[in-house]
User: What shape does this take?
Amino acid sequence: MEEQVARFVSTQPKLPLPPPPGEVGFAAKVRKSLFATPVDAVLTIVSALVIAYVAGNLLEWGVFNATFFGADRTACVPPEGGHAGACWAFVGAKFELFMYGVYPEGERWRVDLLLLILVGLVVPIAIPSVPFKRLNAILLLAVYPFVALVLLTGGRFVLSGGGAAFFMAVAAAATLFAASGKVGFRWSAPLVRVAGGLLVAALLALLAAVLIDSDQMLFLNLRFSVLSVAAFAASLFSVGATVASAMSSLETKRDAAKLLVPFAAIVAIIAFMTTNLGLSPVATNSWGGLLLTLVVAISGIVASLPLGILLALGRRSEMPIVKLFSVMFIEFWRGIPLITVLFMANFMLPLFLPAGVSFDQLLRVLVGVALFSAAYMAEVIRGGLQAIPKGQYEGADAMALTYWQKMRMIILPQALKLVIPGIVNTFIGLFKDTSLVAAVGLADLLGQVRRGFSDPNWSTEQTPATGLVFAAFVFWIFCFLMSRYSVFMERRLDTAHKR
Assistant: This one.
């Protein structure tokens, strides 16, 4: 009996059988994804018919019946009884207008150079494996904006004493902030308190100099008022007090010497902006097209992120005045539409300024867009801060870190990682909202396209649709690239719950 049973008992492990032919391969995937049930099959067929109909009409309009070359509107007028297609010849004829606006043709090399520099800075910082990220970020965020400003406008800015005092106050604030991230820094130190008090005094003096007329004097070859001189001196002494405090408390004097970098950078920026580089001046009202769209979008993005972080931290602050100011700022700007902000910045802001004081129209728009976007960015970042477990805050406090050290090294990196989709979504919305600047007389990409419709040499039935499709495609390209990079960074930084 045992011999008969042994013939049916395997002495070696059996290999797994291959799956049935109908369960693998392309046909199986199509069947499971699109035809798994009768309802799925009906939806798939209906969707395929709709897609085929729409794609066929788009190809017929945009490719088969389209006009790609021509000197005027006659090239886009169909023959008698023919079907009119897209007038891509209109886009080709107006392409430089759509890209540069009415920027002088002989000076457009500046725009091209800035675009190449921008790509050369953005691509390395976007690729994780490329080294020197900190240097790249400094060049992109701190150096490139001033280079772009000088190249686009021609430079040779006339700096007033009040402007020099403002830049010096910025240098004092940057020095104090840089010192707060160093080991051994304490806000309770006497010199640190002196530096903070001098910075506050400088800011109050600057505000008073705008509101109060005072005697003028010549100092450092600049025209200063008495209050602006006081602000300049207070800011300078604030820098000195901060560095002196750092030299007495930091582990090495080399770290203290690094605190002079913001001051040196501000001096270099002032010298660069006021030096005659031989460039022809170009007024901002000559900017237009994609150039203006990128200027408004990039300026808003670069300014709104740090402002949003500060507002989010202020809204969660335990200091009542800081929290109240942050809440009022955020709720005010979130409670009005962007188009109203642009009208206020363009038409109402000059009414509140002292006599003889005015700002460039584009600058007013940039400030309004940055403040509006910062309010929305603050709420996005606040959501990330609230998602951080309380133990992270307690652990940072247990390590005796200062508030800014805790936020910079522990809390903010985790919070920003959590809200990457919300941050990029705000950036995408800001990029699309740049088209609203046309309401205040600035011709961005969409505005230039619409102005091209009024050219009698290209007035056809298909011209408006072709121009709008072109503008929509350009906007889609930029928004799609931002979205895909957001997905890439989100997956790369998603290290939680992995074993």
In short: The CA atoms of residues 209 and 227 lie 5 Å apart.
